[in-house]
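Case study 2.
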Amino acid sequence: MPHHTTAPNTPSPPLTAPDSGLPDARTQKRVIIVLFASQVLSGLGLAAGTTVAALLVQDMLHSTALAGLSSGLLTAGSALAAIAVGRLSQARGRRPGLAAGYLVGAFGAAGVIAAAVTNSPALLFVALFLYGAGTAVNLQARYAGVDLAAPAHRARAISTVLVATTLGGVAGPALAGPTGDLADALGLPSLTGLFVIATVAFTLAALVLMIWLAVEAGRGVVHAFIPQSHRPGAEAEADFGDVKVRLAGEQVTCFVFAMRLSYSGKAVHRVFASCGQEAFLEGHVHALSVLGGVPTGKVRYDNLRSAVSRVLSSRSRVENERWTAFRSHFGIEAAYCLPGIEGAHEKGGVEGQIGWFRRNHMVPVPEVVSLAELNAMIERWDEEDERRRIGSRPRPVSEYFAVERPLLQPLPDEPFETGRLFSLRVDRFSQISVRTNRYSVPVRLIGRTVRAMLHAAELVVYDGQLEVARHERLIAKGQARLDLDHYLEALVRKPGAFPGATALEQARGFGREVHARP
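Prediction:
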């Protein structure tokens, strides 16, 4: 197309999208094999020591009542080690964390041997406490395989490592006899033979992890960020962000809708009192009108309720019917980010744009009489922002947008009604209730049914085809907007109600001079 020959050579500002971070099948298989070997060894060491720990305590203290101390010490050591190993793994990765835990367990097993040789109960208690670290590491090691496994294979990975622990646990007690002979040959108490095996097994388990476990498994799933390039006119992102506004003397929280073209970086903003569906649709109408067309490819969104009724899977959605009708009318192809934190970077362009907009235009907090006044200011800001350069790009946004605008698909000829229509009965106070708030209508309509069209910024009430009331939409819940003119007919008949009328107080609050006739 001729437009491509005039397009600037610089690609769109890099956006980031999370990579899965999962290595190839070969690396995953290697991790499982290494973990299997280390778990067999650690399971052997753990079962070997715990089998005779109680017997050692009983033999050394000459008391069967205190033999249970061994289990308590092992449990306490395991709990403390779980915290320490977890923190080390988080800071340095699973590989050094698990290896350090196994080495502490080996040191504890060696300490048990030394305590038995020197007949020192105090040393025995400390050694059993350290030996408990092997239990914590044995439990945590099985999850290292899950770090690198694909979601569909995670159950198999953890079960494979768990089987390895079982094999070691079964083999440990069976070695009680041969290891007793080994201890006698080494001149050690016969009950320490299994702790000799535990010392060697834990040490080997640490070495296996340090030497052969893939570095990737030590750090969990790696989240890589991939630079993105975008074709002119093809993609955009849209989102809401909250902003502080001093509105009519009161500071309130409002919501800015932003749509950003991914190629040029051209952004359009509009502030609303809420981020409901009316604001969502009106924000689109305004943005597409300013841009002069609709992106030919995908527009990325969060899973906001204005568009999505239900999330079925990572990419499958049940859309809100009204949103489906709207985007079909304009020809918008919606793409939804992954739910939760995993999808946080999939539309980083517009999120970064909203942050930039806040810092550069909403600080200090703007003071306006109405949102219409603020939006008029924002339209000027958006035009001025086209002169800025994004990052290291050699040309301003306006030049990239000049290339992109002709490539957008044209807007539909027919307008789309973005407001929501309600059929409501007027109560005896000459009011109608819309979304928890109340609005007045002329008193002659009491008891009748009227139609109310709720827009993002205002409410328009019709009696048949005749417009009978128009109110600025209320921001907070449980409020009332009353027009004094709607009550004049009734106040003529009940002049005593005039001084305390709520509509009168609101009229004075808006600065109207109201005088009662004598």
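The chain is about 50% helix and 15% strand.
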